[in-house]
Amino acid sequence: MQHSIWDTWKREGSESLQCLVSVARPRWQQGWLFQRGKGKKVWVGRYREDVIAEDGTRRRRALSVVLGPVRELSKRQAQRKLSELLAAINQGTHKPEVMIPFERFVLERFEPNILPTLRFSTARLYRHLIRRHLIPFFGKMRMSEIGAADVQMFLTQVSKRVSSRTVLSLRNRLSKIFATAALWEYVQRNPVKGVQVPALEDVKKRLTLTPEQFWKLYKELPEPYQTMALLAVLSGLRCGEIFGLRWRYVDLEDGVVVVAETVYHGLSSRPKTKASNRKVFVGALVMEALARLKPHGSGLDDFVFKTVGGTTLNPNNVRNRVLIPACKRAGIPLVGWHAFRYTYSTWANPSGESIKALQNQLGHVDSRITLGVYVQPIPEAQRLIAAKVEGVLLPVAPKFTAPGNGSERVIQ
Length: 412
Description:
- The protein is about 45% helix and about 10% strand.
- It contains 15 helices and 11 strands.
- The radius of gyration is 34 Å and the shape is elongated.
- The model is unreliable at about 1-5, about 10-25 and about 405-410 (pLDDT under 50).
């Protein structure tokens, strides 16, 4: 018996259609709708979605979502909201999440691929915070199951043990991890967005030196540390910028130091930001000291402050073995390298347009950092401001009687 082409097409087409239906049917779902709660009841929708297990196999998991209060939504409206949530799953556009624990993702995916792209100091901070704080809390939790509530709970708990700046740093690092996971399609969203962090604490008063204290310290230091301290307090350079300074970056004639390299834990790298790559202007006192320090026949790539072997000095060793003992002998507060930077910005006492100049000298991206963190108030300058403001009022001040003694005081 012969079959026509039409019969063959109908039979094969029908079989193909049945095959498609059999594949699509398990994916399409309406979900389950029910009420939960006693006093204020809410509509809850339950549904299933595909996920990818750690071994790469596809599995299904059950999820629940609160759709809204019963008094505000009818059953039909709640079902419509649930259908909207299920649209991507029913249409086949939903991308399954990978059920990988936080610890595995961070150690096996994030760190090997992202940290090499960061500065050495930044990568080192990531590793410390991940192992010290993030893994102990999130380690065994699956990436796709970590929600905003979990992140908020973590930040609230950790804020009781560390400073507010550390909490903010943890929040930013965690957000970077989840943003990367979302980009790589391990999760659908970043749960860190929208969480609250404690307000930053008021900046504590930074230790700065008076001119008299600095000269006491200077006399107790041998070379090249005298010149190093002088450069630090009269330039505002960062510690890594001082220890990474090469002679090619020093212009003795124009009184300019170019910041193009920094050193951290013995490793050289580019400055931390675009604003940090800059020219720093210093006075003749520093340039004369550098000229005296420069050895005859030194090369352009030689470090200004170096070991006998020509390598960079260790800032911690210099501070602990040279700077701190000199502070004790001089009878002044114990200072670190960053105290010279604070001292420089405070001595500058910026106002008006000079704030922008100081920002450029220090290499800050934002002038608010310059004013809010590095510039400390000087009592003498504040008295001058008070006298200046008072001087505006005095010329037109009336005569008045001083209270208590009946005498008349004339303000001139």
